[in-house]
Amino acid sequence: MSFLTAEHMTGGYGATDILHDCTIKVEQGEIAVIVGPNGAGKSTAMKAVFGMLPLREGRVLLGETDITAMSPQERVANGMGFVPQTHNVFTSMSVEENLEMGAYLREDDFRGTIEQVYDLFPVLKEKRRQPAGELSGGQRQQVAVGRALMTEPKLLMLDEPTAGVSPIVMDELFDRIIEVARTGIAILMVEQNARQALNIADHGYVLVQGRNAWTDTGEALLANPEVRRTFLGG
Ligand SMILES: Nc1ncnc2c1ncn2[C@@H]1O[C@H](COP(=O)(O)OP(=O)(O)O)[C@@H](O)[C@H]1O
Ligand SMILES: [Mg+2]
């Protein structure tokens, strides 16, 4: 039994199904990556896992708990953290205020978690009083990841965390994500940098038109001739 089991998901927006019998699983402490062409339904799958999309069929289990009927907020309380693809920081608020917002569900002292986020992303400590909107793209993504870590999630979901950043910044962000996974947190990540993401992935899911096209270890997908030809550009 996987830590996250999102299985046979079918659903979409209004009457149009985007996901068709889509299944995504993540084990504790592992990095699972969803890749696929633009419009394949990667973000839609993330929204479905997080409870932002009603499913017509399928279910989502976190640990042994069936969370299919839970709101996103209840899922956060149950150990999910989500960094959406867009609008993932409050630009007019300071870096530290963003992190504090991330802890809104917590009633205990979260100061220690802020310090952990600063240890992971030292530049955020330097810039803690600056409005997040003044930071570079890569630094903003660090704020978004840090904000999601504030609830101490057991599963961290990231939708295209490296969108719009340079290759060097991407590598660095991936290193930090590996570091987070090593603490035992499960990572589910959508990435458009497919090769690099599959390189660090324990498991990869290639989605095409809302369906599971290939599912395997990151290594096996990178070596799969058909995946290479049709999706990785040879
Ligand atoms: N809010 C929405 N309302 C209606 N259709 C949407 C919405 N968001 C996405 N879609 C459609 O769903 C499909 C999958 O989109 P998305 O999940 O964003 O793909 P990906 O993240 O793989 O690029 C696309 O055809 C897109 O146009
Ligand atoms: Mg997307």
UniProtKB/TrEMBL annotation:
CDD domains: ABC_TM1139_LivF_branched. SUPFAM superfamilies: P-loop containing nucleoside triphosphate hydrolases. Residues 4-234 form the ABC transporter domain. It comes from the Bacteria. One of its GO terms (molecular function) is ATP binding. PROSITE patterns: ABC_TRANSPORTER_2. Keywords: Amino-acid transport, ATP-binding, Nucleotide-binding, Transport. InterPro entries: AAA+_ATPase, ABC_transporter-like_ATP-bd, BCAA_Transport_ATP-bd_LivF, P-loop_NTPase. One of its GO terms (biological process) is L-amino acid transport. Belongs to the ABC transporter superfamily. This is ABC transporter ATP-binding protein. It comes from Pontivivens ytuae.
